[in-house]
Amino acid sequence: MTRHDPHTHALAAVLTWHLDMGADCAVSNRAEDWLARPERPPGQGFALAHDVHEGSSPEASPPGPQRQPPDAPRSEAVRAPLTPDAAGSAARTAARNAASLDELRSTLASFDGCGLKATAKSLCFYRGSPRARVMIVGEAPGREEDLAGKPFVGPAGQLLDKMLAAIGLDESSVHITNVVYWRPPGNRTPTPQESQVCRPFLERQIELVEPDILLALGGAAAKQLLNVTDGIMRIRGRWFETAIGERRFRTMPTFHPAYLLRTPAAKRVAWRDLLTVKAALAEPAA
């Protein structure tokens, strides 16, 4: 292909479209004909590169499944995706049985009720201390987080670390996670259904961490934790309470670091929110 090839711009446009849709890393070493298996969600049954035997090649891989007529019986090996109600029920049961963060991580790794898992590379559970006075909850992992398997490690995470350092906190004194644990395609906002199916795991995580303060970063996290409809501009900087089980957790909504990167003028407002959190941490225990 030369610089003047008439197809160059068309191919570049196709690649750009795939990146915009979130297809920026390979999750399988061979193509799948998803139209031949409409009963399965995309991504279910992917074989990752490390699962392929050494020495094998895409050309040597067995062909994909053959197209079946619409009335063909479903194979017992194929599992239909869970309905939203079934996924929520399974999430509540699984989360309730986790006695530690390690068990909760293992439970999440084996949970198939959230469709985001099918298109993400990694489970992004948390980073920081397993027990902390401040627990930070964001919206969702991005590309850098998906590759690293940890939340808030990209540019927004680096800004978050600087913000925390300004009030005397660091990774050893906070617990950082997100409303959902897998990256949405194209870094889109998680749907209400995706957030709700992850909600039991987030609630159990909060119970296990036992923070004094929840810091909700951005509107999506604030709405999920507080069950409010107002936007982040109206609710940021105010104390709320998040009821989980028999406990109530003080919760402070503020701007997401990604928003602050796009809108530097809002940093002064976020700084006031952080100072409010710092003052609350200095208060004597009740």
Task: Provide an overview of this structure.
The chain is of the alpha/beta class and 286 residues long. The protein has two domains: 80 residues, no CATH class; 199 residues, 3-Layer(aba) Sandwich (Uracil-DNA Glycosylase, subunit E), CATH 3.40.470.10. It has a six-stranded mixed sheet with strand order 1-3-2-4-6-5. α2 runs parallel beside α6. 31% of the residues are buried.
Strand arrangement, major sheet: 1-3-2-4-6-5
CATH class category of the largest domain:
Alpha Beta
Query: How much helical structure, as a percent, in the residues?
Result: 25-40%
Q: What amount of the residues lies in strands?
A: 5-15%
Provide key terms for this protein.
286 residues; alpha/beta; six-stranded mixed β-sheet; 10 helices; 6 strands; 10% strand
How would you concisely characterize the structure shown here?
The protein has 286 residues and is an alpha/beta fold.
Write the layout of secondary structure elements.
Layout: H1 8-20, H2 84-96, H3 101-110, E1 127-128, E2 134-138, H4 143-148, H5 155-166, E3 174-178, H6 192-209, E4 213-217, H7 219-226, H8 232-235, E5 240-244, E6 247-254, H9 257-262, H10 267-282
Parallel strand pairs: 2-3, 2-4, 4-6
Antiparallel strand pairs: 1-3, 5-6
Helix pairs in contact: 2-6
